[in-house]
Amino acid sequence: MKPVAVFISVHFSTQQQTVWVLIAMPNLDLYYMPSPGPSRAVVMTAKAVGVELNKKLLNPKLGEHLKPEFLKLNPQHTIPTLVDDGFVIWESRAILIYLVEKYGKDDSLYPKDPQKQALINQRLYFDMNTLYDAFASYYYPLLRTGSYGDAAAWTKVQNAFELLNTFLEGQEYVAGSQLTIADISILATIATIELVDFDLTKYPNVAKWYANAKKVTPGWEDTLEGLLSRKHLFDAKKPEFK
């Protein structure tokens, strides 16, 4: 843990004495890229629980995620990876749970109630295995080949949004009555999908939720620069497709 000096003024009758106190602060290293949704979800969650991240940029194009020192931390060499005073955890949704359970001032982002927690977990798995997977299947080929995925991949995207639209029927948040890490994770995914000109208006519940989530999620503004850099990657490939 990194000690951080903080001074407190203490008054004794007519005299004032300044006392220096050492307070241990979290030493959190985040190995990340600013543009992908999983990294942005971690940044927003850290903001929500009030912890500072020592952000360490990795560039996969330069093979930085394959260097021995990083492989020692994470043999799967996935991004993002969090190191908390020697403890290493990767996979963004696992990181979100860890951050709120260890550093959250309360349990609002990830309630301890088993049923509420189970619903949040389900939405997190939906985000990873259905929503994000559908996005990657259809849109990531654009980055590699200049062409979108096939018709089956597009159907997966539509089906995923129809499901999310159903989840949000009559609901302000994706997993209950308040903002949770499920909203934060899915917000990061939807923001990525929207920047490739996906029409959210066809899914009114999703569009309404997305507009609100951007307003109420701590750290949203902190991720915009990374999000825009993601947009530039896709925009650079669109002329080739057209």
UniProtKB/TrEMBL annotation:
Native species? Drosophila guanche (Fruit fly)
Residue span(s) of domain GST C-terminal: 113-241
Q: Which UniProt keywords apply?
A: Transferase
Which CDD domains does the UniProt record give? GST_C_Delta_Epsilon, GST_N_Delta_Epsilon
Matching PANTHER family: GLUTATHIONE S TRANSFERASE D10, ISOFORM A-RELATED
Its name, as the record gives it, is Blast:Glutathione S-transferase D4
User: Which superkingdom heads the taxonomic lineage of this protein's source?
Assistant: Eukaryota
| GO MF annotation list | glutathione transferase activity
Quaternary arrangement and interactors, per the entry?
Answer: Homodimer.
Q: What is the annotated signal peptide range for this record?
A: none
- InterPro entries (UniProt xref): Glutathione-S-Trfase_C-like, Glutathione-S-Trfase_C_sf, Glutathione_S-Trfase, Glutathione_S-Trfase_N, Thioredoxin-like_sf
